[in-house]
C-alpha cells in the first residue's frame, strides 16, 4: 500500500494557495500564438502543483509544543564542528511566507533531525562525503514567537 507524504503548511499559506488557484482557474483558455500556449501550459502546471500541495496538506494548525523535531517546527541547531547556529523551519518549501529558511524532511539535515529532541546530536552526510554533526538546541511550533528577530 502506498502512503501519501503529508505536508505541513500555515493556515495563511493554505488561504493564499486557495486564492491563487481560484485566480488561475478563472482565466479563460485561449488558443493562438506559441507565447499564449506557453503561458497556458505554465498556468496548467501551477494549478497541478497547488492541487498536489493542498491535497497533501495536514489540516492541523500547528504541531504540539513538545520539543520534538517534526514538520511545522522551527528548529535551532548548533553545527558541532564550528559552533555556528542556524534556525529554520522543518517543512515543505512553498508552504509558508515567513522570512525563514525551510528544510524538508527529505533533505540530509532535515531527515537527520526528524524525531530529535533538544540536546540530541545527529549526524548526516554532506555532498562531499564528509559527515556533519549537529546538536538540536530547540524545537518550537511555527509562530510569531518562534521566529528569530
TrEMBL record:
Q: Name one Pfam family in it.
A: GreA_GreB
Supply one GO BP term. Answer: regulation of DNA-templated transcription elongation
Presence of keyword Protein biosynthesis: yes
Alphabetized UniProt keyword annotations:
Elongation factor, Protein biosynthesis
An example of a GO molecular function for this protein is: translation elongation factor activity
Coiled coil feature spans? none
Q: Does the keyword Protein biosynthesis apply?
A: yes
The residues covered by the Transcription elongation factor GreA/GreB C-terminal domain are 66-139
Alphabetized Gene3D superfamilies for the sequence: Transcription elongation factor, GreA/GreB, C-terminal domain
Q: What is this protein called?
A: GreA/GreB family elongation factor [Actinosynnema mirum DSM]
